[in-house]
């Protein structure tokens, strides 16, 4: 079976690959970007989802977080950043390798064609100068997340999913990253940070300073144009109008020469213990067990 191929145009904007996809979108332009994280230090990888959650909710450049939020609502359909993991797709010259996966940060947003100047200006502010120094804002966001999306009650709503994700973590590199970013490892990190930030004292300041250093390191990695590629989706006029503003955005970002040590295409993580037990405040136990199965490209895969 062969998928229908959609036409697109590959070009460059200030040295960055850009894919242009022409389609009727009723005067909307959709923007995507991928920032390669394969050379991000391993100790920072677990913080990527937290970074993605915090990043678009901060102030930037000359705007407070309230002003940034109002500008995003006024001029765009939303700006977001998310952690993105992709398994290695086999080709005619390579076979599937369970120990290989590509990790990146996915930038996404959309807006009306006439709003593109302001749209890319806001992205430029966020990528050039996010306000990581607002400790009160960071504390509020993290504690809200710890008591909300990552609370024990929230985990209980999808406890079987968490158990299965943990059980499958060692089956492939992609499953391992899924557990790190979206599983119990991530839940434990956020809840530990929330507990520490909820206490007043010198330790809280130390935790915040350490966290800010990590966030800044991830930001500098992501905002480097040597690790970025983009795509635009819209009608012909929208693409033509948007491309110059995307070029201005790229021109405003730093560009570094990759070091000789940055030659890894795929991230490698340490395997987890085969069996694990997590103490949770539940009256019910949730368990998961995972087995290797043929990949979708294997002749043994169920049709």
TrEMBL record:
Residues 1-193 form the Peptidase M16C associated domain. Gene3D superfamilies: Metalloenzyme, LuxS/M16 peptidase-like (3.30.830.10). InterPro entries: Metalloenz_LuxS/M16, Peptidase_M16C_assoc. One of its GO terms (molecular function) is metal ion binding. One of its GO terms (cellular component) is mitochondrial matrix. Coiled coil: none annotated. It comes from the Eukaryota. GO terms for biological process: protein processing. This is Peptidase M16C associated domain-containing protein. The lineage of its organism: Eukaryota, Metazoa, Spiralia, Lophotrochozoa, Platyhelminthes.
